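re: ur question from earlier - yeah i can do the single chain one, its not a big deal. heres the input i used so u can compare w yours
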Amino acid sequence: MIIKYPVIENALYLVSTPIGTLADITYRAVNVLQNVDILIAEDTRVLKKLMNLLDIDLNSRKIFSYNDNSIDVVRSRCISELDSNKSLALCSDSGTPLISDPGFKLVQKVLNTGYKVISIPGACSILVALCQSGLSSDKFFFGGFPPKKTNHRIKFFNNLLSVPSTLIFFESPKRIINTLEDLGEVFGYYNNIVICRELTKSFEENIRGKIEAVIKILKQNNYVKGEITIIVENKNDIKPDLNLIKSDFFNLLDNNTFKDAVISISKKYSLSKKQVYNLGLKILNK
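and the output i got, formated as C-alpha cells:
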C-alpha cells in the first residue's frame, strides 16, 4: 500500500492523538509528527513518550509546552516561528486538540495573523462514546465538564432541558455520582444514560440504563477510576411510563397527601406538577 501525504506546509497543525489504544494513531498524524519543524504539547513528557512508542526521533527539533494558562508571549513565539517559514504541530495529551483541551487562543491568533491552521483528524472520546452508546446520534450537544458546585450544576442542567438532542459531558471519577444525582434531579431518574469509562483501553466499560440504576451500580464500587464520558438521552424523546407513575402514586399515597405525592413524582420523572396532578386524577378515577 502506497500512501501519498500532503506536503508539510508553513502552518499550525492540530494533531489528534490516541485516547487509549496506540493503534488508533493515524498514518497522517505520524507523518506530521515526523516532519514538522516544531512540536507543541499540552505536556511535553506525554508527547515525548508517544513519539518514543511510535519510534519517531525528535532530531534536535524544538518541543515546548502550551496550555490555557500560557501567556500571550508563548503565542507570539509561535507566530515568530511561522514568520520564519516553520511548520508547527500542537498535540493534546490524548484525543483531539481544543476539545476540552488547550489551543483555542493559539488557533485564533494564528488565523488572525493570516497563517493556515490544519486539523489532522483522529481519536475523539465524544464521538466514540456517542456512536456506541445506543442513544440517538443524529443530533448531539457537547457540554464539556459540568460545573463543580451543586447549585451551579443544577442551573447548568436546567438550561439544557430544552436542547433537542443527545447530550454529552465529561466528568471526573470523584464527582461522577454527585453529578448523576443532580442530573437525575433535573432530567428525572428514569432518563436513560450511558457511562463510558476508559474508552478504547483494554478495561473499557460502558454502563447503560436509567440514571437511578446507573447510580446504584457505581455506588456498589468502592471507587470509580479513569476518564468518564456521560451520554444523556434527549429529554424530548422520553415518554412518561404510566404504569410506573401509577405504582408510585399508590405507594406514596399510603403515607403522603395527594399534593406531596404530586411533588415527589414530578421531581422524580422531571414532569411539571400540573402534568402529574392531571395524571394522578386520571389514575385515581380509574
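The beta strands are 11-15, 38-41, 62-65, 88-91, 116-120, 140-142, 166-171, 192-197, 205-210, 228-232. not sure if urs matches, ping me
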